[in-house]
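From the shared-data thread, chain only:
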Amino acid sequence: MVGIDKINFYTPNTYIDLEELAKHRGVDPAKFTIGIGQSKMSVPPISQDTVSMAANAAYPLLTENDLNNIDLIVVGTETGVDESKSVASFIHDLLDIHPFAKSVDLKQACFGATAGLMMAVDFVRLHPDKKALVIGSDISRYGLNSSGEVTQGAGSVAMIVSSNPKIIEIEETSVSMTKSIFDFWRPNYSKTAIVDGKFSNEAYISFFSELWVEYSKRTNLSLEDFSAFCFHLPYTKMGKKALLPILEKEAPKNKDLLLENYQYSTNYSRDIGNIYTGSLYLSFMSLIEHASSSLTATDRIGFFSYGSGAVAEIFTGKLVDGFKDSLLSAEHEKLLTNRIDLSIEDYTTMFTKELSIDSDGNHLFNQDKTDNSIFFFKGTENHQRLYGKN
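Structure, as tokens:
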């Protein structure tokens, strides 16, 4: 039995309230809070990047045993900090994991962390006495006053994969699909993504529908075999758009259960925003931490991972006995409750602040005064990124 033994998320200490942003933009707040299902959006200070967020998510999980037995570190990201050096190599150093671990990044839009999880599960099945650290970490940016502004966000999810996991066993059968399309992409020369929103929504729904048919055919499983389905959530209404069509012929009791648990799975994303590769696993944490009273061991959870461009996969897992004892619900509630609500002016200033690197590749700065995280980005020296730890 191999699966997720521990799981945690991190998001920056600052956010913008989307009702306030809507009023400032001259938009009906319901368009954001009801139309796409978002309430708050995490906004990272310059001292938080893909590396520091990944370290902040992983650090609370690690025991001495983990540090000595993690032989694989995989980071899924589409907002890496270097065109060559992996985020995982920074993480290996910052977390002081033993020197003989393999450390790599995987990139395919929002699918990267799922590719990493599957790689890690296969690795541990071959090496049952070893563990793997899988991280999805990203900053989603489309620009101020852009059409995608309210589907931005920032955060990271870290998972330890092991034999005899304490949270969920990943089942062996999964189905993936690839089509080369341009629904969302970011050329190397662009700081923000290019999005065909309508086409992207259609592709997401189509991929889920096709994969569900194929998955059902290969496994002979139906929706009655599932207690919940977790989705990649660029915004919280997206997964529901894909789920509803396959629920049309379901018995009311099963339909109601899946829709109720879907709502539980959206709570964290609603208050954090789109975190790209970590989004699906943020959904999973939201589900098991908010619906824990109704979920029990052996309940099957479905996962739909989608990365524009496009690659998607349906896979499943079964909750294990005692999974509730390994959840970090109180820590997550504290993290979200203690965040700072930015004014529109502060949001604009924080969003537009950039590194001003001189010809020698230098720009060092102090940790942002709002940033209370353990790991933080300090700037560059001789073109090398530097990180601090509190």
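The mean pLDDT is 96.
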